[in-house]
Amino acid sequence: MTITIPALPDPFTFDPSTTALVIIDMQRDFIEPGGFGESLGNDVALLAQIVPTVAALLALARQSGWFVVHTRESHAADLSDCPPAKRLRGAPNARIGDEGPMGRILIRGAPGNAIVDALAPAEGELVIDKPGKGAFYATLLAQELEARHITHLVFAGVTTEVCVQTSMREANDRGYDCLLVEDATASYFPAFKLATLDMVRSQGGIVGWTAPLSSFTAA
Ligand code: C5J
Fold first, then answer.
1. Isochorismatase-like domain spans which residues (predicted)?
2. Is the CB of 73 under 6 A from ligand 1?
3. CA dihedral sign of residues 173, 114, 50, 152
4. 55 in helix, strand or coil?
5. Which of 12, 2, 22 is nearest to 148 (CA)?
6. Best of 30, 139, 192 for a ligand 1 pocket test (most atoms within 8 Å of beta carbon)
7. Is residue 168 within 8 Å of residue 207, measured between CB atoms?
C-alpha cells in the first residue's frame, strides 16, 4: 500500500513497509541544559523545542510499522575512530574525549552521549553509533537497510545543517528517496536550518523532499 502526502517540491509517495524513520543524534549533550552543546555557548532550547514533535513522529512511525533507526554521534573510548583533524577543531578546552559536564564528550557510554529519555529507542529499533557526521560513514547502516529492503527514508533530528544534512546527502547518493520533516529538525542557527530546507528541495528535490509532521498525521 502506498501513501502520498503533500510535500515540497512535490508530493511524496512511500510504502510504509519499505520506509524507515532515521532520527539523527537526539543526544543529551546536544539538547539538554548543562551539556556539551550549552557549554559551547549554544542556545539548546532551539533544539529541545523539537523533542515533542520528534516524539509524535516516532509514535506515528511505530504505529505505522516503519523500521526505526536512531543515531548517536559517538567515538570509542580510546579515540581510535576519531581523526585528529576532527578532535583538534572546536573549543580548545572542550575537545572530543575530554571530560565534559555530562561525562567524556562524544564518547560511547558517557551519560551525555545517550539519546534523550523522551526518544529512547525501543526493542527492535536500530541504534547506529557513528563516528562521522554522516550516518553511513563507517557504520553498518547501509547493510541494515538493504537487508530490510528499505527504499524510503524519513529524517528528523539535529543539527539540520550538519549531521542531518550530511546523512541525507549520503542516503540520496545511495539511491534512497529521502524526506526531511521540517518541524522535527533543528539547528543552533535558525538561518542554517531554513537554508538547509531550501537546499534539500531546490532544483526539483536535488537531495529530497521536505514536509511538516502534519502532512503525515493527516495521511
Ligand atoms: C550533529 C554536530 N549531530 N553539529 N553534530 O549535527 O556537530
1. 19-207
2. yes
3. positive
4. helix
5. 22
6. 30
7. yes
pLDDT digit string, tens, across residues 87-112: 998 788 899 999 999 999 999 999 99
Question: Cα separation of 54 and 106, whole Å?
Answer: 22
Residues 200-218: pLDDT tens digits?
999 999 999 999 999 999 9
> Helix count (H) and strand count (E) of the chain?
9, 10
Distance 158 CA to ligand 1 centre (A): 6
Three cell numbers, residue 67: 523500521
pTM, two decimals, is: 0.98
Strands 99-100, 103-104: pairing kind: antiparallel
Grid cell, residue 15, equals 510504502
What is the rounded CA–CA span in Å between residue 115 and residue 30?
Answer: 10
Per the annotation, the verdict on 25 as an active-site residue is yes
